[in-house]
Amino acid sequence: MKDKEVLLQVRNLKKYFDTPKGKLHAVDDITFDLRKGKTLGLVGESGCGKSTTGRVILRLLEATDGEIIYNGKNIRELSPKEMRALRKEIQIIFQDPFSSLDPRMTVSEIIEEPIKLNKLIRDRKKRFERVLELMDLVGLSRRLMNTYPHELDGGRRQRIGIARALALDTKFIVCDEPVSALDVSIQAQILNLLKELQKKLGLTYIFITHDLSVVNHFSDDIAVMYLGKLIEKASAEELFSNPVHPYTKALLSAIPRPTLEKTGEKIILKGEISSPINPEDNCRFANRCPYARDVCRQSEPPLRESGENHFVACHLF
Amino acid sequence: MKGTVLKVENLAVRYVTEDGIVQAVNGIDISVEKGSTLGLVGETGAGKTTTALSVLRLIPDPPGEVVSGKIELDGKALMELPESKMEKIRGGLVSMIFQDPMTALNPVLKVGDQIAEAIKIHQQLSQDKALQKAREMLEMVGIPGARMNEYPHQFSGGMKQRVVIAIALSCSPKLLIADEPTTALDVTIQAQVLELMKELKEKMDMAMIMITHDLGVVAEVCDNVAIMYAGRIVEQGTLEEIFNNTKHPYTEGLFLSIPNIDDRKAELKPIRGLMSDPFNLPPGCSFCDRCDYAMDKCATEKPEKVHFSPDHFVECHLYPDNKEFQLKGGKG
Asked: Does this model's pTM top 0.80?
C-alpha cells in the first residue's frame, strides 16, 4: 500500500435543505481528499455542517450536488444494489451511545445483526464466534454478551457501537463525535481503542468533532468548517503551529488549556455565527472577523494553497 | 483573606432508591473565601451537582436525604432555616446557573419579565422599576436592552446563557454556583461567556463555585480547586498546587487523560476501569480499583487527609508515611 494512496475524494460537495425561509446551505461546495489508513479531522462549531458532511458522504443523506469518489467509484451514481454491497465497507459511529443502540437487543444481538442481515456468515455457531471475537477486539468482556444497553455505562456502549461498525468488511468509518458524551478518563480509553484498531485493521477515519484538543491528538489532517464552507485545511501539525484563517486562529486561542503557563492572547470573537439560510456572496465569517475589509463583504474567497499542502479560504492571503 | 462566604462541614447526602442506597456525597468540607472562585472538578456521578444542590437545600427529598452536615452561608446556618427563609436566600444571597440554558428559561415568558421576576421577589420593587433594572442587567451581560421583549427561542445558546447569568446576578448574590455553565456551548462562545463571568465576578465582588469536568476551564477561572471522586474530595488546593504539585493518583490520571494540545504525539494514558458503583462503595479508598499505586491497605482502610500546606490536602495512603513521594506520571 502506498502511503499517498487516496481512498476518498470529495469534489464540490453540496447539501442544501429546503426550509420555509429559504435554502439552508448546510454543506456548500467543499472539496477534500482522504488518504488510505489516515484520519481526517473535521472540526467546527454547532451548525457548521460537519455532521451533514459525514452523512452525505455515506449517502445517509443524498447530496444536492458534487462528487464522492470512493476507491475510484462515484458513490452518488451507484445503484441501490451496488450501494448495499459498498455499505459493508463504509460505516459510522454515532455520538450518543444512548440513543444509537436498540434498547431491546442484547449486546451480542446488536453486534450480530449486521452480520446476519448481510448474510456474511450463515452458520449460527460461526457467527457467534465472530461476535465474541469482535467483543474481544473492542475490549468488551464476554460476560456482558447477554446484557442490555441500559445496564451499561457510556464507555461500554460506545464500544458496542464500535464493534457493530467493525462487524462487516469495514475499511472506512465516519466517527461522528464518538467521545463527546463521555467523561475524560473514558474518553481517553475510547480514543486509544480507535487508534489501536486503525493500526491493526488499516482503517481510514473521518473524525468529526468540536473538541480541538481531541482532533489534534487524533488526526493526520484537519479541515476546519464554518457555515457550510471548508475554510482551512492542512496537516494537524501545520494547522496547530501555523493557523492562517482568522477563524481558525480564534478557535485555537479560545480552547481553555489545562496549564498555568499561558501562551499568547485569547482572541475573543464578537457576535455569533450568522444564518446559513440563503447566504450572500461574501465571506461567511466577515461579520465576526476582526480583520474584515470591504472585499470580504463583496465576494466569497476561494480555497487557495497558502503553503505546501496548506489550503485556506480568506481574502487576506 | 477577606472572610469566608461559604463553609460546608462534613456534608453527606444519599439517595434512597428501590435498588438500594446511593452514597452520593460522603463527608466533605468546603470553604469559599469572599471574592474567590472554587473549582469543583470530577466525572459524572462524582457528587458535584449534589454538593451544589445541598448548599441551596434543593436536594429532592425523597429520594434524597442529607445525612449530616453544617452549611454556613454568609454567617447563616442554612440547615436550620425554615423553608420560607430559604426562599429569600435562593436567588438573593446565593444563585445558581445550570448547564443547559435551553431548559433553564421559561419558553412562554419574555426574557425581560423573567429577569424582573427575580428582582421583584427579592427587592420589593414596582413592576416598572424591576423592568428597568432587568434592562440594565441585560445590557450588563452584553445583550441590547431592546431585546428584553423577546422570547427565549429567539436567542442563540450563548445568548440564553447570558440571560440566565443576568437572572442569577440580578440581586447581587454573595455566592454564585455555576454548574457546567459552558459545557453546552461552542468554544468561541464558551470563551465569551467565561470572560463575561470573570468580569462580572470582579465587578460585583462575588464568590463563585465553578462545577466542571474541564481542567482547561478550571485553569482559566478558578483560584482554588477541589477534585471529587465518588462523593469525596480526594484532593484540594490552590490552582497552582493542584496543577503543578499534583498529589492524588486520580488527579494525575485526569491530567494524563486529556489530549495535550501542544504536543500531539503525547500518548493518552487513560485511567483504567470505571468509577466504583455508588450503590456499593468499597470499604477502603474508592479509587483503589483503578489506581496504579494501590497497596494492600487501600482496599480496606479509608485514607485520611494529609496536608501539604494549609490549603493543600490529599486523601491518599501514599503520603502519611512518606510526604516526599512523587507520582511517576511526569506531572507535578
From this structure: yes
